[in-house]
Amino acid sequence: MEKISNFFKTFLLLELVKGMALTGRHFFARKITVQFPEEKTPQGFRFRGLHALRRYANDEERCIGCKLCEAVCPAMAIHIETEERADGTRRTTRYDIDLVKCIFCGLCEEACPVDAIVETRILEYHGEKRSDLYYTKPMLLAVGEKHEEQIAKDKASDAKFR
Amino acid sequence: MTELLQYLQNLLGVAWLPIWTLVKILVIVVPIMLTVAYLTLAERKVIGYMQVRIGPNRVGYFGLLQPLADGLKLLLKEIIIPSGSNKFLFIIAPVLALTPALAAWAVIPFADGMVLADVNAGLLYILAMTSLGVYGIIIAGWASNSKYAFIGSLRSAAQIVSYEIPMGFALVCVLMVSQSMNLGDIVLGQKSSVGLFGWYFIPLFPMFVVYFISGVAETNRAPFDMAEGESEIVAGFHVEYSGMAFALFFLAEYANMIMIAILTAIMFLGGWLPPFDIAPFNLLPGIFWLLAKTSFVLFLFLWFRATFPRYRYDQLMRLGWKVFIPLTLVWVVVIGAWMQTPYWLW
Q1: Using the beta-carbon criterion (under 8 Å), do B307 and A32 form an inter-chain contact?
Q2: Which of B52, B54, B209 sits opposite A26 (nearest CB)?
Q3: Element (H, E) at B50
Q4: Is B172 helix (H, G, I), strand (E, B) or coil?
Q5: Contact A22/B54, CB-based, under 8 Å?
Q6: Number of alpha helices (DSSP H) and beta strands (DSSP E) in chain A
Q7: What is the pLDDT of residues B186-200, one digit of tens each?
Q8: ipTM metric
Q9: Residues 27-46, chain A: which have Cβ within 8 Å of B?
Q10: Separate counts of helices (H) and strands (E) for chain B
Q11: Where are the beta strands (DSSP E) in B168-246?
Q12: Residue B63 neighbours by CB distance under 10 Å
């Protein structure tokens, strides 16, 4: 009996009609496309985008050259060289991040004892050749100076979860 | 208007007939080409909407210039001719695919008397022309001198030839019912006092379904698009084609789609007849109704593509040979017997 009813159901194309009803309903559904340059998806305060090096309010750079980030970096994208400054403190002479190697895991940010290296919300940047994506210390400091306000706000939002 | 035509006729003399026919051909072909262009946009939009996307909307308002941009891109691209190919056949194949698709339009009646060539064997002419398109595919696959193109062309040729048989039988039913091969007479045969209940899709409903599904398979459209199969094999018979030569195959495919849609409208959905022969419906011109029905069938093509997964090749052959051909044969006999009884109302 079931075989007979299945036979007739096959010829009535019921399943095909059901499938078409589904796509037909979606035809009128609200579209979920985000029109990128005009619209943007919301970002969390922990978003891991382009890197930045921060400074204190008195313009002293935060990085103390401990190389913890260089050690923890799983992609070995960070290269640091340090020297002893005239006032006896240790500072970096080079702080390079190769963004081609970087996997944006955020471990450098986690490792930093002084919140010097951070990942910002910036994701719309590009390079026309590979060397454009090799960020040096002055470039990273410039990113930090430009976006310090947003970085400080995101750090404050994150602080209560630590 | 008639005076102007008379004046031109006297002015041109013997050259009048070819020139006037050429004008008529242009009046048919140019809108077809525009429809083909905008069908590609409609396809992307409809499928996008069914997938909860919005489709192209950057080139012009609502993406309306997208077909022009695509066409321009393909025009400017290089046509690569494979070194081992037969160059003459390689170039002629896309032309052979497109020409019959356009030539079949000569006998399509757009409204009562609005037809380029009022041929009495119009249905036969259409069957002949749509069958010729397969030569373009076979030649394209062979001339490319590539095993992938060759296998692809054999597969799509086998598919097209297989589905032509149930399609032909479905048309035999229409022919029996209307007792005419003239497409205009077929439409007029569907005219009745009960409007859309007089159309042939009611007594021939199984044939209507078979004809349309065979039409989808005949034009190598999803879910029977083994020839193209963009998600698994990239392309079949036209792998070696690029630029405008490639575009011609696409024009042919879409022209064939419109062809099948308009034939379905003419033979099963009453052609240019309004659904009810009363005031608000029969005030609109016949061509409006024909185009509305054609658009509906074309929308079904796109709806199918957005809904159904691709058939496997052996299942496709099984459907064609073991389901459709017996079904159509049985229905030919049923219709023949039914027409002899007093219960035949059409």
Answers
A1: no
A2: B52
A3: helix B16-50
A4: helix
A5: no
A6: 5, 5
A7: 888 888 777 777 788
A8: 0.74
A9: 27, 29-33
A10: 13, 0
A11: none
A12: 18
